[in-house]
Specification:
By secondary structure, the protein is mostly helical. 60% of the residues lie in helices and 2% in strands. Strands 1-2 form a two-stranded antiparallel ribbon. A hairpin with a 2-residue loop joins strand 1 and strand 2.
């Protein structure tokens, strides 16, 4: 048809975006960005868009034409429209714009009001200029409202995704910390269980006797003889006759709390207290063992 303008490549149905950037740079998305940035569409006295020869062309809003990817109308390309013809061309273009915004709106955005505006404007061929002007203006106002609401919802959705990702990361960090704490507690419990055995208590006593008091193997042999006689190196041992408790048979057992509050369950606490007692009362384990052999106590 003479005067018909072909659709530009960016709006051709056969054009398929090959990259994410191209996919996001669709005419409808460019329109939404332009609506959002420019804050409104002029409707009085000029067409938002004009229809010429079956193709869209922009009259006095080239930025909107660029957003939609259609050619900008000029005096040589599009005949001047006046009166009712201008109003009807503007109505047709406004419907196209409004339908684009509806199609591209966020799924959570309510487009009901805009769809009603489109329906009310669809019989523009039979409406008077006054009625067309009012309906075009109200439709364009609603287009802006829906475009803004959609953009706001897009931001809320993006913020929600960021918040959800952060929540998942925080939960993973909390779980990792809890797992690490549980592993450390389990390791400590296993170490304590090993230290509470007779062999573990002897190893602790041998190390402390050498490092803190300078007692060698001969003194440790006396210590081993002494506490084997007293408790068998059992941290749970209690003398039924006098109530002496623990590996060193402290009387009362609560004396060992001067080292740590866990004296009833921790062989290392008992050994530490027992070595301090021997050092203070007898000087060496062999002296304590000698007293025990002579008097049956130390």
């Amino acid at each position: 048809m003479t005067g018909q303008h072909p659709l530009p490549p960016s709006t051709s149905p056969s054009t398929t975006p090959t990259t994410r950037r191209q996919a996001l740079d669709t005419p409808s998305r460019r329109l939404r960005r332009t609506l959002h940035k420019r804050g409104g569409l002029a409707v009085s006295g000029a067409a938002v868009l004009a229809v010429a020869g079956g193709a869209l062309a922009v009259g006095t809003q080239p930025a909107i034409g660029e957003a939609l990817g259609v050619p900008t109308a000029s005096a040589s390309a599009t005949p001047a429209l006046h009166g009712t013809d201008l109003d009807r061309a503007q109505a047709a273009a406004t419907i196209v714009t409004a339908r684009t915004v509806v199609a591209d709106a966020n799924d959570k955005t309510d487009t009901t009001a805009l769809e009603r505006r489109i329906s009310a404007l669809s019989d523009y061929r039979t409406l008077s200029s006054g009625a067309l002007g009012d309906r075009i203006e109200s439709t364009v106002d609603t287009v802006q409202d829906v475009a803004q609401a959609s953009a706001d919802q897009d931001k809320r959705d993006a913020d929600a995704r960021v918040a959800a990702a952060k929540a998942r990361a925080d939960a993973a960090a909390v779980k990792a910390a809890a797992d690490a704490a549980a592993a450390a507690a389990a390791k400590a419990a296993a170490a304590q269980a090993a230290a509470n055995t007779p062999a573990g208590a002897k190893a602790t006593a041998s190390a402390l006797a050498a490092s803190r008091f300078g007692w060698g193997a001969d003194q440790f042999q006396c210590l081993d003889n002494l506490w084997t006689k007293e408790s068998g190196w059992d941290y749970r041992a209690v003398n039924p006759n006098g109530g002496a408790a623990g590996i060193p048979q402290a009387l009362p057992g609560s004396k060992m709390a001067t080292v740590a509050a866990d004296w009833q369950t921790n062989a290392t606490t008992q050994v530490t207290w027992g070595l301090q007692y021997i050092s203070a009362a007898y000087g060496t384990p062999c002296a304590a063992w000698g007293h025990s052999q002579a008097n049956n106590f130390y």
